[in-house]
């Protein structure tokens, strides 16, 4: 197996909803395992997600889980998830879905370096950066 660098998101009880939302945005195969699936069927957090992984046809891998009991979560810090490429329609589609019901800190528009770029925080508190470059000739 190749070594991969993947964003891993932590949630305070809404990992299932967030990961299902990201599957709607990006498509692909979503695997969700709850604490109950890992032998804690009687625990109060049995239905919470211990590990989730979304693998998309575009090659993205996004992982996430609910915080274990007793651990605090600070959504949105200290990272961003970056999407970049030159497929305008694909990236705009992601932008529209991610920014819907979220907040936009930098509108998706042409920047000084020539690409279109925007920053938003989705409705689950995850910050995203989208950069649409010019196709290479």
Gist of the model:
It is built from 2 helices and 8 strands, in the order E-H-E-E-E-E-H-E-E-E.
- Structural class, from helix and strand content? alpha/beta
Helix content: 10-25%
User: What summary fits the major beta sheet?
Assistant: 4 strands, mixed
Integer average pLDDT: 88
Rg is 16 Å
How far apart, in Å, are the first and last alpha carbons?
33 Å
Number of separate strands: 8
Task: Please indicate the percent range of residues in DSSP E strands (runs of 2 or more).
Answer: 35-45%
Shape call: elongated
Low-confidence spans: none
Q: What strand order characterises the main sheet?
A: 1-4-3-2
Organism: Streptomyces purpurascens
Protein name: VOC family protein
Region (Disordered): 61-82
Domain Glyoxalase/fosfomycin resistance/dioxygenase: 5-129
Structural features, described:
The protein has 137 residues and is α/β, with parallel strands linked by helices. Helices cover 18% and strands 35% of the residues. The protein has two helices and eight strands. A four-stranded mixed sheet has the order 1-4-3-2, with helices on one face. Strands 5-8-7-6 form a four-stranded mixed sheet, with helices on one face. The radius of gyration is 16 Å and the shape is elongated. The model has no long low-confidence stretch (mean pLDDT 88).
Features:
four-stranded mixed beta sheet; alpha/beta; 137 residues
SSE layout and pairing:
Elements: E1 8-11, H1 15-26, E2 29-34, E3 49-55, E4 61-66, E5 81-85, H2 88-99, E6 103-110, E7 116-121, E8 127-132
Parallel strand pairs: 1-4, 5-8
Antiparallel strand pairs: 2-3, 3-4, 6-7, 7-8
């Amino acid at each position: 197996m190749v070594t991969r660098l993947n964003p891993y998101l932590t949630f305070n009880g809404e990992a299932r909803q967030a990961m299902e939302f990201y599957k709607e945005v990006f498509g692909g195969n979503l695997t969700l395992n709850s604490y109950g699936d890992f032998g804690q069927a009687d625990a109060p957090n049995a239905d919470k997600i211990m590990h989730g992984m979304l693998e998309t046809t575009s090659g993205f891998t996004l992982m996430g889980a609910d915080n274990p009991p007793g651990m605090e979560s600070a959504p949105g810090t200290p990272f961003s998830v970056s999407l970049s490429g030159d497929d305008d329609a694909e990236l705009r589609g992601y932008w529209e879905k991610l920014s819907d019901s979220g907040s936009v800190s930098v509108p998706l528009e042409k920047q000084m370096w020539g690409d279109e770029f925007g920053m938003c925080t989705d409705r689950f508190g995850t910050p995203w950066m989208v950069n649409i470059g010019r196709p290479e000739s």
